[in-house]
Design brief:
- The protein is mainly alpha-helical.
- Among the domains are: 80 residues; 110 residues, no CATH class.
- Helices cover 72% and strands 0% of the residues.
- The chain is built from twelve helices and no strands.
- Helix 1 runs parallel beside helix 3.
- The longest helix is centred in the middle third of the chain and has 45 residues.
- The protein is elongated, with a radius of gyration of 32 Å.
- The N and C termini lie far apart (91 Å).
Length: 278
């Protein structure tokens, strides 16, 4: 459901924005797409932890639509800025950079989430454990657990308090052991710190979108795509093949293509060769 909510508007806005960008230029569409994406990410930072699904789905739809509005015009602008003979290499470089950026962004934003979690998790653990009757010394020792371990334990549905709290602390009178070892206490305890790190990641992503929108607007209006007829494309392709074949045989030099009706220049012959004896 979440995947279709994100990519369905991308499949709709991407081709539509690409066609419109070919006619009116890519700058406006790419810039508006990045601005809307940044605003949608800021909207994700404003919804509560126990959000309503329609609001969340609407924001995800806006992100998918906005990225489709940006991706196709931006790719079209990159391809149109290259000579026809270099578009294959340009497309390969563009795909390489995009795929590398996706992988790097996962590690980068997960690091941001972890930093935000580590900044608020110790205090949240200390407050929550002491509220359930855990002695202050044991709660302070348990509050310094690694944030990554706590996060993955919550993702896997595990409660690490049974291992990070000593048995003597759990058996102390006044400690609500059943609550501490239940399935709901620990996820609810780290929900606030995790949301803090997640909001920092969304804020940073929105900032990058707005910076990208500024650069997208600064590149100028651009030009619409120049359409060639089929005969012109065939003629250009055959000329390129002929140029490569001649250069491999050592005839001519790269960049020299004979035009129809023009005879090749011949070297002047010496007088001896013209009037030579038999």
């Amino acid at each position: 459901m979440g995947v279709s909510s994100r990519y369905s508007p991308f499949f709709v806005s991407g081709p539509l924005a690409g066609r419109l960008a070919d006619r009116h230029g890519p700058r406006n569409f790419a810039t508006i797409g990045l601005v809307f994406a940044g605003l949608s990410l800021l909207g994700l930072t404003m919804i509560p932890i126990d959000f309503k699904y329609p609001v969340f789905a609407m924001l995800i739809l806006m992100i998918g639509f906005s990225m489709g509005l940006f991706a196709a015009p931006n790719t079209s602008a990159v391809m149109n800025s290259l000579p026809a003979t270099q578009r294959g290499a340009g497309s390969g470089m563009l795909n390489t950079l995009q795929n590398s950026a996706v992988v790097l962004s996962m590690g980068f934003f997960f690091t941001i989430i972890t930093i935000g979690l580590a900044a608020t998790l110790p205090q949240a653990l200390l407050t929550g454990l002491t509220a359930q009757g855990v002695p202050l010394a044991a709660a302070r020792a348990a509050s310094h657990v690694p944030p990554i371990g706590s996060l993955f334990a919550a993702f896997l549905g595990m409660n690490p308090l049974t291992t990070i709290l000593p048995a003597s602390a759990l058996s102390t009178s006044g400690v609500h052991t059943a609550v501490l070892t239940g399935h709901d206490f620990f996820p609810n305890l780290i929900a606030g710190p995790f949301a803090h790190g997640l909001r920092e990641a969304f804020d940073l992503a929105a900032l990058f979108c707005f910076i990208g929108a500024i650069f997208s607007w600064m590149r100028g209006p651009g030009q619409s795509e120049v359409h060639h007829t089929l005969s012109e494309d065939i003629e250009e392709g055959l000329a390129g093949v002929a140029e490569i074949a001649l250069s491999e045989m050592g005839v001519g030099s790269p960049g020299e293509v004979m035009e129809p009706g023009v005879e090749p220049a011949t070297e002047p012959q010496s007088e001896d060769r013209v009037t030579g004896t038999r």
